[in-house]
């Protein structure tokens, strides 16, 4: 019996699956794959955070159900962070909710505020949950530019003129995953003015607030006067404190949006394990030199990658923020496309990347490189890339190499 599930059918095929399958096969055969694909921090969580977890977990009273909204101490710590970092005052009781990572928060907010057929303005390319959390909730997408410039507002104006029904929410993510683009406070002021004029909620993902390389830290949209009337923002401890597996994030801002998310969550979960939440509060309230250490680590890796890959013949623009580089594929592979380039790069150079089209069709022609390998491994990758690129002079060579690869894969699958 074959089942047809409506929501599942609305999701496109997982475009990283083919590269991931090749990566797994290569490793199974004993090859050393240098993996820039997944944004999975490789550094250990700072020791004082781990110590607070182990101290708290010894208390059996913390082993019971927690609170889906988040323990009060962690909500106060999140509000304290916003006060120190952005000079934004939040009520921990009504304007802060703890989530199981920002991804869960974004998805459940979509469930809370979306009706079937709603139009959502979503940047393209973008982190998949930004768009598909709303698709799963029954919405339709209207794609807009990810560039925070005049073209962004031109596309917004086109959307409000032509979308039926009118858009109900706008998604933002700066610093951006995957493009690493950043936005300034003036941009956010214009966004809030536009959204208020057209009665649109704004959902901001600020997961990379502390991973930046310019002198000016990325702002919060909630710094705009009156933004809290229509905006909610999500953050995460995953990258800032090297805590990806702990699954701690938060949503803050407009109390109606935060309240709607908290109400949905009350039906779905009991919150993160209490000792994890206590340790997360210790991360936000404790010494912050570990945050600067993480920032310096990613900056150093970025600089090594840009230099080493450039010398190998692949120009990678230096990202101003995040733990990713968003790189155009070399010219001779443009006709082949980013997925074909990614497959060849894995096969010929033992280097794994994420094809840009996996983040939306406007990501074609690019790949995302995560800064999750150390300096030695980055330089090792550059040597393999240099050898690979030396074999491909033009698009004809690239297409022929891809045909041979497809033939090998077909033969191996028999």
Strands side by side in the biggest sheet: 2-8-7-6-5-3-4
- Major β-sheet profile: 7 strands, mixed
What's the total count of β strands?
A: 12
Overall SS class: alpha/beta
The number of helical runs is 14
Brief description of this entry?
This protein is of the alpha/beta class and 414 residues long.
List keywords for this structure.
alpha/beta; Aspartate Aminotransferase, domain 2; seven-stranded mixed beta sheet; 12 strands; 14 helices; three-stranded antiparallel beta sheet; Aspartate Aminotransferase, domain 1; about 425 residues; about 45% helix; globular
Question: Describe it for me?
Answer:
The chain is of the alpha/beta class. It folds into two domains: 6-44 and 290-412, Aspartate Aminotransferase, domain 1 (Alpha-Beta Complex), CATH 3.90.1150; 47-285, Aspartate Aminotransferase, domain 2 (3-Layer(aba) Sandwich). It contains 14 helices and twelve strands. Strands 2-8-7-6-5-3-4 form a seven-stranded mixed beta sheet, sandwiched between helices. α8 (185-197) links the parallel β5 and β6. α5 (101-113) packs across α9 (255-268) and α11 (289-312) packs parallel to α13 (375-390). The longest helix is centred in the last third of the chain and has 24 residues, at 289-312. The two termini are 27 Å apart.
């Amino acid at each position: 019996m074959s089942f047809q599930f409506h929501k599942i059918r609305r999701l496109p095929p997982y475009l990283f699956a083919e590269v991931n399958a090749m990566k797994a096969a290569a490793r199974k055969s004993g090859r050393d794959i240098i993996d820039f694909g997944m944004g999975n921090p490789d550094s250990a969580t700072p020791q004082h955070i781990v110590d607070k977890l182990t101290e708290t977990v010894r208390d059996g009273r913390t082993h019971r159900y927690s609170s889906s909204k988040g323990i009060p101490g962690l909500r106060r710590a999140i509000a304290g962070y916003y006060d120190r970092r952005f000079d934004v005052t939040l009520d921990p009781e009504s304007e802060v909710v703890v989530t199981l990572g920002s991804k869960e928060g974004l998805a459940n907010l979509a469930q809370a505020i979306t009706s079937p057929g709603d139009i959502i303005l979503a940047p393209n390319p973008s982190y998949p949950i930004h768009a598909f959390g709303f698709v799963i909730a029954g919405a339709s997408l209207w794609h807009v530019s990810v560039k925070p410039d005049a073209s962004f507002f031109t596309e917004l104006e086109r959307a409000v003129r032509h979308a039926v029904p009118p858009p109900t929410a706008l998604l933002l993510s700066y610093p951006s995953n995957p493009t690493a683009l950043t936005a300034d406070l003036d941009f956010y002021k214009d966004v809030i003015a536009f959204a208020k004029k057209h009665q649109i909620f704004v959902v901001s993902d600020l997961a990379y607030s502390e991973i930046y390389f310019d002198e000016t830290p990325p702002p919060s949209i909630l710094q705009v006067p009156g933004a809290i009337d229509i905006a909610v923002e999500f953050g995460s401890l995953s990258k800032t404190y090297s805590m990806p597996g702990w699954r701690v994030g938060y949503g803050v801002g407009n109390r109606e949006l935060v309240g709607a998310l908290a109400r949905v969550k009350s039906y779905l979960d009991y919150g993160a394990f209490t000792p994890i939440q206590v340790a997360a509060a210790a991360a936000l309230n404790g010494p912050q030199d570990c945050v600067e250490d993480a920032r310096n680590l990613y900056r150093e890796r970025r600089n090594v990658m840009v230099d080493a890959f450039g010398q190998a013949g692949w120009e990678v623009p230096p990202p101003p923020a995040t733990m990713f580089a968003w790189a155009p594929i070399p010219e001779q592979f443009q006709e082949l496309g980013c997925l074909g380039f990614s497959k060849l790069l894995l096969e010929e150079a033992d280097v794994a990347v994420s094809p840009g089209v996996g983040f939306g069709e406007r990501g074609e022609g690019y790949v995302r490189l995560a800064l999750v390998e150390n300096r030695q491994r980055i330089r090792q990758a550059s040597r393999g890339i240099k050898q690979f690129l030396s074999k491909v002079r033009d698009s004809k060579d690239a297409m022929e190499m891809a045909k041979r690869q497809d033939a090998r894969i077909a033969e191996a699958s028999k």
